[in-house]
Amino acid sequence: MVRCPPLALRSPPPLSRGSLVAVVAPASGFDRDELFRGLAWLSTRYRLQVDARILAREGYLAGADASRADVLSRAMLDDDVEGIVCARGGYGAMRILEALPWERFAARPKALVGFSDVTALHVVANAHGVATVHGPNVTGLGRSITAAERASLIATLEGATPAPWTGLEVLAPGDARGPLVGGNLALVEAMAAAGRLVVPRGAIVALEDVTERPYRIDRMLTALLLGGHLARASAVVFGGFTQCEPGPDGVTVEAVLRERTRGLGIPVVAGAPFGHGAPNHAFVLGGEAVLRGGAVYWGAP
Q1: 28, 116, 152, 234: which is the annotated catalytic residue?
Q2: Is 67 among the residues known to form the active site?
Q3: Would you call 128 helix, strand, or coil by DSSP?
Q4: For the domain bounded by 169-298, which CATH number is listed?
Q5: pTM above threshold 0.85
Q6: 276 catalytic, yes or no?
Q7: Summary mean pLDDT of the chain
Q8: Which of 189, 208, 212, 288 is catalytic?
């Protein structure tokens, strides 16, 4: 088994029933019906703080950059707020990164939840030493997700150990242990291009994506390889690659994932239950994971 020093990420205090959770919209606008259904489910366990400005629209964004940044900044600094859940991904989180109070947030961290475009926030928070939660956005909670997916979110937020991921496809065999980092491949690659991606040596890199042709998945993985980011990883865990159908050439995304990681010489598995398809289980970015065979465990299995 690969051994690596632990990443010194600070885990925010766990939530409990009745905790105050702020809902923010750092990226794209969203379907209001899905938002309200997601809020209804969240409100069965937590108290909610929702700023009306998250309903704003400005083109493909959920309001102006300054407004989105202000709502998120207030939630990050509000001592009464114990968790922050993003309404949707889409696009826009990178536009407000520099306007957010990362140093003060790192001094008093709280759970930050989301996925897809929210990966940009995860990358910066993790680089500041704060563990975050890769999990469903509020609008996702308003769709037809399973009880197991919702249970994984509650368990992750409240400090319980989620169920292991088993039965994964082994693309390259081996065992590894390290902090789990990553998220949406397109955002991970974009943050690398911006010089903001930190992949600690020995980390297990988790990646997923949606609506990308296999050649574009190839390009993004190749960019990470050329930048040396995956050279520091102890393993790679691929989640869902939803609606990433082959083009006229017939090359599948599965073939790309296998071929592009073959030269790393580290364990690689695919089919983990997270991403834009079903299921999308929550997990801690920055938390220690153990890859053993075709399974991922949290902490020591």
Answers
A1: 116
A2: no
A3: coil
A4: 3.50.30.60
A5: yes
A6: yes
A7: 95
A8: 208
